[in-house]
Each structure stands twice: as structure tokens, then as C-alpha cells.
Amino acid sequence: MPDLKLGKLPDRIPVKITFTAPPDLNKALQTYAALYRETYGEAESVSELIPYMLQSFLEADRGFAKARKELPEGEGAGVVKPGSRGRAPRVSLPPTSKED
Fold it and tell me: CB within 8 A of 23, min separation 6: which ones?
């Protein structure tokens, strides 16, 4: 077998994850999507934004990054490195209440 400089590509098949959000989180996500549209002039659905939000959260979690480095090789893989994909803007959301 030839010794190629490029290693085997990682699994790139998207995995669908379904979850139930409480009403206040749903409202905040809808507000975020509206602010995203205002900021960038392009509408993106909440379901399109969530993966990038989660990615951004995981990349910013220093405790997670440290613990992940301590895992045996291959077990901590999976999160895309910063800057390799588009990122959702950092926007402060208005507080939500259960009365709305």
C-alpha cells in the first residue's frame, strides 16, 4: 500500500439528533434566528443554526477541551476546529419569561 501524505478522511455523514426544547428556549432560539437575519440579511432556520451554536459552545468550554485532551486517542474526536466552518454571531438575547 502506498504511503500517502493525506490520511484517511474522517466520517462526514451528518447525524440527525432530535430533542425537545422548553417553550422559553424555543422562543429564545426564534429570537436569535430573527436577529441573525437582521445582522446578516439572510434567513436561517433554527435547525440550521443549532449545530453551529453547539459547536461554538463546545469550542469555548475550556474545561471540556482540557478533559477531551486527556481521553485516549480517537475518543475525543468529532468537533470541528475553530474557523473551519461558518459561525453564528454572538448576540445577546433579551430575557425570556414564562408569562409570554
Answer: 98
- Secondary structure in 3-state letters for 57-90: HHHHCHHHHHHHHCCCCCCCCCCCCCCCCCCCCC
C-beta separation of 18 from 50 below 8 A: no
- CB neighbours of 86 closer than 8 A, spacing ≥ 6? 52
Q: What is the mean pLDDT of residues 26-47?
A: 96
Joined together, the cell numbers standing for residue 20 give: 425537545
In a domain, 68, yes or no: yes
The tens digit of pLDDT for each residue in 41-77 reads: 999 999 999 999 999 999 999 999 999 999 887 676 6
CA-closest candidate to residue 49, choices 99, 39, 4 = 39
Full residue range of the structural domain in which residue 58 is found: 51-76
Task: Decide if 69 is inside a domain.
Answer: yes
